Amino acid sequence: MIKVEIYDEEHEKDLQYKVNSFISSLNENDIVDIKYAINAFVANQEQIYCYSAMIIYRSSK
Question: What is each CA distance from 52 to 1, 17, 29, 45, 60, in whole angstroms?
């Protein structure tokens, strides 16, 4: 079965930590792909960044 895990953080280091923590629990051969995106927008005259990752992986559960 193919599954996904999605993470969304305001800081790239937070995203990096969460993705690395999750993939360390997987067998390397079970990772299909990792999609990464950055979005930026202005809210109340403040620049906001959104870092996201979707991990596509195989699961036997």
Answer: 23, 12, 22, 22, 25
